[in-house]
Amino acid sequence: SYIPLSKKHENVVLAGDEAHNYESKQRLAPLQSTLEDYVLEAEQAEESSVWEAQVASRAGIRNTATRTRTAPMATIDTGTSNLSKLRDQVKSALTQLELQTEDVQNASARRKVELNQVKEELTRQKAELEQAGTSLEYYQMLREELASWVGALRELKTKLMPIQEALNKVERLGGNRWRNWQDDVVSILRGANLLDQVIGRQPALEDEQVTTVVDEFGRDVKSQFVLQRDKRVRQRRAIRNQRTVHDEDSDALFSDGEQAEMRDRRDALQEALQVAFGEVDDEYTKLSNLIAIFAKWAELHPEEYRQCFASMSLADLASVLVQADLCSSHHPLQWQVKNDEEELPWLYDLKCIAVSESTEEEDMPSYRMADKVLIPIFLELLDEGAYQIFSSKQSRSLAAFYWRICSMFPKENAATRLLTDRIVKYLKEGLDHIAIPILKAKTPNQSLSEDVQEAVNYATKGQTRRIEKFVCNILTNWTLEAMAAPTLHFIASKYLFLLSSLQAQGCSQAASESFARVWKSLKATDWLNLSELMLQAAPIRAAAGVYGCK
Questions:
Q1: CA pair distance 516, 514, nearest whole angstrom
Q2: What is the pLDDT of residues 51-94, one digit of tens each?
Q3: Could you say which of 161, 199, 276, 330 would form a disulfide bridge with 436 (CB–CB 3.0 to 4.6 Å)?
Q4: What is the dihedral of CA 197, 201, 202, 204, to 10 degrees?
C-alpha cells in the first residue's frame, strides 16, 4: 500500500498495482524536472555566448576580447557536447520509463481481468455447490427407490422363470404329433401295399416293424413301433369321433379332454403368476411407475443420466415386468396386430422416454428391451419347436411378433439378421421334414380296413389341405426374400406332384381348389417375377394354366 505524506495528496490511499504505479511516478517526477531545467539552462547559456560574440564583432573589439573569449568558447563547445549527450541519455531514460510504465499498465489490466475471472469462477462454484446439495438429496432418494425396485423385481423374477418354462412346455405339446401322423400313414400304406413312393423326408421304417407275428400262445407279437402306431391311430380315431378336426389349428390332434387339460394348465399358470404378483407390493408391479422414476431423472439431470447409461439400467429392470406381460396377455403365439399403445403399452412408454432423453438409437431402452427379452423369447420358441407352421393362428401371431421386433431396429442390424436367419432356417427345415406319401395309381376305395382307409384319406385330401396351409402361411406371413427360392422349389417339385397324384385318384376338383388358393397367395408376393427365380416359377405358371388360374 502507498500513503503519501504531502498535504496535496493527504486524502489519497492506494493499494496493489495502483500504489506501485503511483509511487513510481512520484519518485521519477523530481528527477525528470531537474534534468529538464538543466538542459534548459545549458541551451540559454549557449545562446547567450553566441549573442555576446556577435555584439563584440560588430563593436570592433579585437584581439584582447577575442583572446579572453577563446577559452570560454572552447569550454562552451565542450559543455554543449556534453549537454547533447546528456540530453540523449535523458531522452533514452524517459523512453525506458515510458515503456516500463506501459508494461506496468498492461500488467495491471491483466490482473484486473484475472481478478474478474476469479470472481466469476467463485460465483459459479458457489452456485454449483448449492446445486450439488440439492442433487445430493435427490440422488440419495433415487438410490433408496431403485434399491427397493431391484429387491422386488429380483424376488419376482425367481418366481416368474418356472412359470414361463411351464407355459412354453404347454405350447409345444403337439409338436411331434403331426410328424408321427405322417410316419404312421407311410407305415400303414406300405403294409397294405398301397404306397407308390414318399416325397420329401423318408421315414426310417423297416419291414419287420410293420409285419404281424403270432407266438405259440396265439398272441399278436409286434414291434414297439407298431404298438405305438396302433395306439396313436386309435387316439386319432377317437378324436375324430368326438369333434371335427381343423387342420389349420395347432390343437387339431388333441382330444376334448386334452384340450380341457391344457386350458386348465394355462389357467393354473396364470393364477400362479397372479400369486407371484400378489406377494409384491402393487407399486412394484406397474411398469409405468418405474418408467416415471427414470423419466424424472432424465429431466432433472440429463447429462448425468447419459453418463450413467441409465437407459440400459431401465431396460434391465423393466425386463422382468415385460416377461410377465408376455406370459399373460401378450404371448408371441397369441399375438394381436394393433398399434403400440394397445399392443405393447410398455413399448410406447419406453419410446417416449427415449425421445425425451435424446439418446443414440443403440442406447434406447426399447432396443435394449428387445435385445434382452423379446429376441430370446422368440428364439426359444423356435428352439423348442413350439411354433406349429401348419397353424394359421400361430403363424399370424408369431409373424406379427417378428415384424414388431424388426420395426424396433434399423434395417441393417445384427439383431434383425439373427432373427431372419433363424426363422428362415426353421421354415426351411419345416419344408424339408414333410413326408408326402403318394398312393399307387389304382387304389381301391372299398374292402379296406378302417386303419388303411384313414391312411388313404390322409394321403389324398388330408395332407393336401395341411401342406396347402403350410405354403399359404409362408406366402402370407413370412414374405422374406430368403424364403422365395425354397418355397417356389417346394411348390414346383413336391406340391404340384401331390396334386397330380390326386387327379389319378379322382380328386381333380380338390386339386384345383387347393392350387387356386396357393396361386392367389403366391401372386400377392411378386416372387414369380424375380429374374433369378424364373426356372422355379416356370412349372408353377404352367400349372396355373392347367388349373385355369390367372
A1: 5
A2: 677 766 766 555 444 444 444 554 555 666 777 888 888 888 88
A3: 199
A4: -150
